Every structure is written in C-alpha cells, then in structure tokens.
Automatic annotation (TrEMBL):
This is ABC transporter ATP-binding protein. Belongs to the ABC transporter superfamily. Coiled coil: none annotated. GO terms for molecular function: ATP binding; ATP hydrolysis activity; branched-chain amino acid transmembrane transporter activity. The keyword DNA repair does not apply. Residues 5-234 form the ABC transporter domain. PANTHER family: ABC TRANSPORTER ATP-BINDING PROTEIN, HIGH-AFFINITY BRANCHED-CHAIN AMINO ACID TRANSPORT ATP-BINDING PROTEIN LIVF. Involved in beta-(1-->2)glucan export. Transmembrane domains (TMD) form a pore in the inner membrane and the ATP-binding domain (NBD) is responsible for energy generation. SMART domains: AAA (SM00382).
Length: 240
C-alpha cells in the first residue's frame, strides 16, 4: 500500500504556544483515515499545518513524494489538496454557483460532476442562484464540501463535517464520502460522530496533547470499548 501523505516529526508553534509536538503518521493512498481525539488534542491544528495555514516549525510533510511543509496554501491546493474547514468557510456574498466557479480552478464547471454532487446535495441545485450567506448551517456545509470536490482532488482534508447537522444530512454526507473514496480519493478526516467515523474510516489515528498516541484499523477501535475509553475518555458511542 502506497502512502500519499507522510508527517515526520512535525512541530507547530502559534505565537508562544507549542501546539504540535512531533507528529508522525502516514495516510495510505485511496483510503480514508480518521483523526480522533479529545477537544484541544491538536486535530484541527494538524490539518491546518498540512494545508500551510499554519507553518510547521520543525519536521517534514511529504505529499506524493514532494516536500510541502514550506509551501504556501495556494501552492498546496494546486497540488490537488482540498480542504473543508470546521468553520464551513464559504463566500457569503456570492451565490452557490459563484462559490463553485471559484473552486473550479482548472476550468469551467463540469456539468456531469455537478449532477453527481446534486445527487448528494439537492439543496445546492435548489439554491443555485441564492447568496451563500442565506443558506442554513447544513446547506453551508454541503456547499463547503461541494467546493472541495467540484474537481477531483488527490487528497481531501476534512474537519468535522457532520458537526451540528441533522441526521438526514449526515447520512447524505456518509454516502458522498463513500462514493468519493470509491472514485479513488484519499481522505484525512477529523470526526466526532462515531457512526460516521465507523462507516467512513479505514484506519484511525488518535491524538492527545499534540501527538499521535494510537494508530490502527478503524474497525478494531470501534469494537474495543475499553481502548476507546482509555484513549478518548469515553466510548465512541458517546461522541454521536
């Protein structure tokens, strides 16, 4: 199995705060890796560091054989990395259509791919010419994910996509990510919803205090309540 993304001894400082403390892990190509941990463990900071939003102060980040820890965020995106932040970042004053046009860096929107996206998120078709700022929270999350997948990406970094969403929308997201994976995408996802993590994840990384403290198969962690409680402080069922 080929590793698409590798972090080796990655440290991140934000101001005077030392956030990541020598993070080491690899993400296998074509697989979905879940990044779990207690609040404040460093999960979002890890995604931000990979994406270049925060600069690694030490260590190496390698994407498909290329060092990227010193690259700017736009350059990392051009290498085929899509990012869905926890904040559901969309351009509020632009329409749904305009948000997706901006995300399609390689040319005009692909109608076939749009139809595929609308199959998971029909609300985006319905509000195609509406301002993104007028959408509900769930609809903004759909748009944020659609922006990341409007073109094929080599790697998707996704931060808590199901947080605060209605169960029906969560089901649609799970189906969407499963189909993205079937199409060959590699996903690194932070998620607290156990059902989503269990359904989507192939492997799992658990963080604590800015370090990786566990790595293994998602199915093995899902079936070991004692390990869940030791690593996360409570069973994964309680994260739903």
């Amino acid at each position: 199995m080929t590793d698409l993304l590798t972090l080796a001894g990655v440290h991140t400082h934000v101001g005077r705060y030392h956030i990541l403390h020598g993070v080491d892990f690899s993400v296998a190509e074509g697989k979905t890796t879940m990044l779990l941990g207690r609040n404040g463990a460093g999960k979002t900071s890890t995604l931000r560091t990979i994406m270049g939003l925060w600069q690694a102060s030490a260590g190496q980040i390698t994407l498909d054989g290329q060092r990227i820890e010193a690259c700017a965020t736009p350059d990392i995106a051009q290498l085929g990395v899509g990012y869905v932040p926890e904040s559901m970042a969309v351009f509020s004053d632009l329409t749904v259509k305009e948000n997706l046009i901006l995300a399609a860096r390689d040319g005009p929107l692909d109608d076939t791919r749009l139809e595929w996206i609308f199959g998971f998120f029909p609300a985006l078709r319905r509000f195609w010419l509406s301002r993104a700022g007028a959408l509900s929270g769930g609809q903004k999350q759909m748009l944020s994910i659609a922006r990341a997948i409007v073109e094929p990406r080599k790697l998707l970094l996704i931060d808590e996509p199901t947080k605060g969403l209605a169960p029906a929308i969560v089901v649609a997201l799970i189906e969407c990510f499963a189909e993205i994976k079937r199409r060959g995408a590699t996903i690194l996802m932070v998620e607290q919803n156990f059902h989503a993590a269990r359904e989507i994840g192939d492997s799992v990384l658990v963080m604590d205090n800015g370090q990786i403290v566990h790595r293994g198969e998602m199915s093995a962690l899902a079936n070991d309540v004692a390990l869940q409680e030791r690593l996360l402080g409570l069973s994964l069922e309680a994260h739903q």
